[in-house]
Design brief:
With 216 residues, this protein is of the alpha/beta class. The chain has helices spanning 11-16, 18-42, 170-180, 190-193, 206-211, and strands at residues 4-5, 58-59, 87-93, 106-111, 119-122, 140-148, 156-166. The protein is built from five helices and seven strands. It has a five-stranded mixed β-barrel. A two-stranded parallel sheet has the order 1-2. Pfam families: OB_Dis3.
C-alpha cells in the first residue's frame, strides 16, 4: 500500500528553514519503514518487493513537490467588468407548486440559451391574462433581464422587458439575439445620416478609384 506522510507547516517551521523540514520528513519516512518492516516479519511475509516509480511517499507541503506535478488553483476575488448583457430570450410559464406563496407573485422564465439560469419574474410584468391562459403564451418569446441572483437560490431574479413575438419567426428571433449581445439596432440619428452622401445617386470619383484596389 502507498505510504502517506503528512507534514504540518506553520510559522515556527519557517524560522528553522527548509532543511529542518526535510530532516523531519526523513525521520518520519524511516520510522514508517521500520514499522512496516516489523509488521511484515511478524506476518511471515517474505519475497521481493518492487516499488513503482510513483509509489514514493506523498507530501502535503506543495513546496516540496516539483512544479510539473502541481495543479494550480485559484478563486475569483473581484469582477472587473460584466461582459454579459444580463438579457436573455426565452419563454414564461407558471410555477409547478400552485399552493406556494411564490406562485402568487412570480412566474418562471426559461431562457433559450441553457448557459443562462432560469429566472423568477414578477407576475406584474407578465401579460394580464397569463395566469388564466398560460398555454396562449407557450410559444411566445420574451426578453428578460437578470437583476439579482442570491447565493442561496437556485434561480435568479429578473424583469420582463418586452414581448418579441412568436418563436421561429425571423424578426423576433433576430431581435432577441441582438438584444442578448447588447447590439444597438435602433434607427440611426440625423447626425449619423448627415455623414452619408446627400447627392444621390452617388458614385466613386475617378480620384478615389485610382487610390483603391478594385475588388468588384
Amino acid at each position: 500500500p502507498d505510504v502517506i506522510i503528512e507534514a504540518q507547516f506553520d510559522d515556527n517551521d519557517a524560522e528553522h528553514g527548509q532543511d529542518h523540514l526535510q530532516d523531519m520528513l526523513t525521520d518520519d519516512i524511516k520510522k514508517l519503514s521500520l514499522d512496516t518492516g516489523e509488521k511484515g516479519k511478524a506476518a511471515g511475509v517474505t519475497g521481493v518487493h518492487r516499488a513503482k516509480q510513483d509509489d514514493g511517499p506523498k507530501v502535503n507541503d506543495p513546496r516540496l513537490i516539483p512544479d510539473e506535478f502541481l495543479q494550480r488553483t485559484a478563486k475569483v476575488v473581484y469582477i472587473l467588468e460584466k461582459k454579459h448583457s444580463r438579457a436573455a430570450t426565452g419563454f414564461i410559464k407558471l410555477l409547478a407548486d400552485r399552493n406556494s406563496e411564490l406562485f402568487k407573485r412570480c412566474a418562471m422564465f426559461s431562457p433559450v440559451d441553457h448557459r443562462v439560469p432560469r429566472v423568477y419574474v414578477p407576475l406584474a410584468d407578465c401579460p394580464p391574462d397569463f395566469v388564466t391562459k398560460p398555454e396562449a403564451y407557450s410559444q411566445m418569446l420574451f426578453i428578460c433581464r437578470i437583476v439579482d441572483w442570491k447565493e442561496d437560490s437556485n434561480f435568479a431574479s429578473g424583469q420582463l422587458c418586452k414581448s418579441l413575438g412568436q418563436a421561429g419567426e425571423i424578426e423576433p428571433e433576430s431581435e432577441g439575439i441582438l438584444t442578448e449581445y447588447g447590439v444597438d439596432f435602433s434607427d440611426f440619428s440625423p447626425e449619423v445620416l448627415e455623414c452619408l452622401p446627400q447627392n444621390l445617386p452617388w458614385v466613386i470619383s475617378p480620384g478615389e478609384l485610382a487610390k483603391r484596389r478594385d475588388l468588384r
